[in-house]
Design brief:
ATPase_NBD; Euk-type_GlcNAc_Kinase; ATPase; ATPase_BadF; 5-stranded mixed beta sheet; Nucleotidyltransferase, domain 5; alpha/beta
Length: 297
Amino acid sequence: MTDVIVGLDAGGTKLGVRVDTLDGSRIADVSLPAEDWSASPAGSAARWLADRIRRVVPKGARVLAVGVGAQGCDTVEHCRELEHEFELLGYPATVVNDAELLVPAAGIERGIGVIAGTGSIAVGRDAAGEALFSGGWGWVIGDEGGAPAIVRDATIAALLARDEGLPDDGLLNALQLAFGVSSAPALARAVNDTPTAENWGPRAIAVFAAADAGSARAGRVIDRSAQRLAALVDQLVRRGAVADAVVAAGSVIANQPRLFSALSARITRAHPALAVVLLDDAPVSGGIELARRRATG
């Protein structure tokens, strides 16, 4: 029987699953759809994840421990509840918010993780080891720097400029093309009628393209997104987060250098002692590290 450890990264659109032996040999590394993932209720969430574990772990292998980063697990109590549900299913587990995978994934002991992907959140720990969260309130009212929120904010900026009678600087046209419409009212309907991450998020690339093409409005949307992400770090530091570095990851921050550069510059100005790192491995590697720590005590 082969003993394995499992890392899980449950995000808004996909689930990363990595299976290793204790000596680091890779057994499996896959990405599964996760549009129906929800961290609540904890029992259902644990069963959903356990089903995916069984799909990926080879038959006959014994799972020694699981390290889970879960989007939507936004309090210590919720994470502990999910751990308990895993234990009931026979899986010793360490569960954290998905942003907390970033620091161990980067090989850093003390840090703040910032995710900007489907959503956005920052997570750190204080001197007593208690988790601290900032952001993560969802793309309808928050999650600045995440793909859906960037599209939301860009649409607002473009339509407000139109109401002011200002000429389009490229942002409005870029959004209309992205949504497949030909007028501002049609754009508003396309955004409002389906306020989902699946509808908004994929259009974020159009905002960055507009900024690169010279749209000042798109550039300001991106700069404000970086400002809000940096503010999450500021809030955690003020609340006692202990960190040597900020580790950033997520589909937007990883694929849009403009956003990462703006975020890095703001953090460096405010907190010169903090290194700012863009994660160069999949966050699920942090889940493997948590599972290894759990398995080896």
